[in-house]
Design brief:
By secondary structure, the chain is α+β, with helices and mostly antiparallel strands. Helix content is 15%, strand content 36%. It contains 5 helices and 21 strands. The strands form 7 sheets. Strands 11, 13, 15, 18 and 20 form a 5-stranded antiparallel β-sheet that branches. Strands 12-14-19-16-17 form a 5-stranded antiparallel β-sheet. Strands 6-5-7 form a 3-stranded antiparallel β-sheet, with no helix packed on it. A hairpin with a 4-residue loop joins β5 and β6. It is globular, with a radius of gyration of 21 Å.
Length: 331
Amino acid sequence: VGVVKDIGFKEIALSETKMVYIRKLDPLTSCLAVIGCSAATVGMAFLIILLTKESCPFVYCFNGEQYIFDGEPYGGAICQGLQRMDLCRLEHLRPVDGEYRIQLTNEVNETQYTDEFKLWIVDHPPEVDVIQDAAGNLYTVADLQKPLMAVSSRGEDVTGWLAEKDMLFWESDILNKDPDNSSDLRDTLFLNFTKPPHADSAKLVVHGCNTLWASQMLIRMVALCGRYVEQFYKKMDNPGAITQRDDWDNWTEIYALHVDMLIGDTWMHRGTIIGGGPFMAEERIIPLDLDGVEGDTVKIRLAPPAGFWQLNSLAMDYSPEIPFKMQEIFA
């Protein structure tokens, strides 16, 4: 049961509910929680964050009236060996009295380290957007192409879930999965995009993130180390251990989802979507080499492990890079 603006109370059957977003706002802080399959009070929603969240801080931005939850950087960086730079797109940040006001908070039972905190101010033409890749490189986007079609390996049309950047996220249908059936351990999604003549590269724009399951996986993996967890963290400083972790990531795709492209009759790995979240999805660019793509269609395949990814939209951009200005501000 909830309140809809200009309508009043509205009831939706639990069986028809996939996800509920609960936002608590006040002048000092705000909180956004995602509760799968059921509704709860805001207090319970925040409790779920404390019990399930792992490995990254929350970023709040002041919009002139209140602080809004706006970023969730470097998820999965649980020790020094896994540290990385990350960018959050701050949708709600507005200048107030000649300054930007940002809060970086730790709201879970963990120790967090932040080595550097800075703001990038990007000036660009109004008809152009600027989006980063996982490495922090900035790209311009001027002509987004929605998918012509998006279907699952079961023949389900999922275009409505993946065509728009909105509140509709595609996720695995966990209730209809059999963990003893190996074919149910992954979902496979196929997307087709128009390919302009003579295009030899593209920018895939993905808006999505990991689910709470991915955060829980980190909690359980660390718990397996027991009283030797500090030794595990130190081991992760070793380049060989990082290589093993990367190999595991590439095999499971829990935190690094492959973007495969059809080249002739063969699916080839052409990019990777790096995970994050789970409460704040980010847009990321995945640069794609179109060498070998035949015809006027780019065909993409994703095979996320069941239950670990939530995807909001995928789009393709073929526009050339457009000049922009970027200013770096340190806190």
